Each structure stands twice: as C-alpha cells, then as structure tokens.
Amino acid sequence: MELDDVHPSLNKWAIANRFAANKEKQVWKEMVYWACKEKGIKATIRGPVRVEIHYKFKDKRRRDCDNYTPKFILDGLVEAGVLVDDSCDIVTELLIKMSIGTGETKTIISLHELDRM
Q1: Is the distance from CB of 117 to CB of 77 less than 8 angstroms?
Q2: How far is 92 from 4, CA to CA, in rounded Å?
Q3: In this model, does residue 117 exceed pLDDT 70?
Q4: Which candidate, 117, 63, 64, places its Cα nearest to that of 93?
Q5: Could you tell me the domains of the chain?
Q6: What is the pTM of this model?
Q7: pLDDT of 17-57, one tens digit each?
Q8: Could you tell me how many helices (H) and strands (E) the chain has, helices first?
Q9: CA-to-CA separations, 59 to 2, 4, 38, 52, 62, in angstroms, rounded
C-alpha cells in the first residue's frame, strides 16, 4: 500500500503542542485506515507478521532513520482491522527503509505473514 506523504519526524512531533500533535496522529491514522479500505484489504492478520515501512523522500536531505517511527501507521492498520493488534506478539518484525533523492515523497507499507513457531 502506498501513501503520498511521509508523517512528521519525532523531532517535529516533540516540539509540537499537544493539540497539534494529537491532530496529526489522527490524520495519519485515518489516512492509513482509508487507504486500507480503498485497496479492499479485509483480512485480519492475527500474527506473527513482519511490517515493512519504506519512506521515500523527494529531496536528498539526510535524515535519521530512528526519527521516523511508524506508530501512527501501525495504529491505522489496527483501526482498519488489518492487524488484530500492534503488540510484539503480532508484529514480531518491523523494518524501516529510507531512500532520499527519489523524486517523490511517499510511504510504502508492506505486510508479510510469518510462520508460527
């Protein structure tokens, strides 16, 4: 699934006031929710699952990978019913990829169900 934006970094999130931060969280949760609905994603993954988030940035500015934690994305996947929960017994692997200078800004979300051990 692709989203045509990248959520704010933790640096921006940390300096935002509480109300602005909560509004941004809700916007991203809803964006993921509606993207799942538009794509017709109906299956509920009960785990274990690897979630891959690939952030692509149009410009070539360097960024810290750890400033882009996908909390809002995971919350949106739970809200949409795609993941039963985003706890560590369901989301057992989380991979964050980043690319700069791609000519486009977007977030690509991939889910891969894993074998139960």
Answers
A1: no
A2: 26
A3: no
A4: 117
A5: 2-113 (3.30.1330.70)
A6: 0.89
A7: 888 888 888 898 899 999 998 988 877 888 799 999 999 99
A8: 3, 4
A9: 18, 15, 28, 22, 9
The DSSP output letter for 43 is P
Distance from C-alpha of 102 to C-alpha of 16, rounded to nearest angstrom:
28
- Tokens representing 4 are 């045509």
- Mean pLDDT along residues 90-94: 95
| Mean pLDDT computed over 82-104 | 95
**Two structure tokens written together for 117:** 């051990």
Length of the chain: 117
Evaluate if residue 102 carries a pLDDT over 90: yes
* Among the listed residues 40, 48, 93, 47, the one whose alpha carbon sits nearest the alpha carbon of residue 70: 93
Q: Are 30 and 75 in contact (CB under 8 A)?
A: no
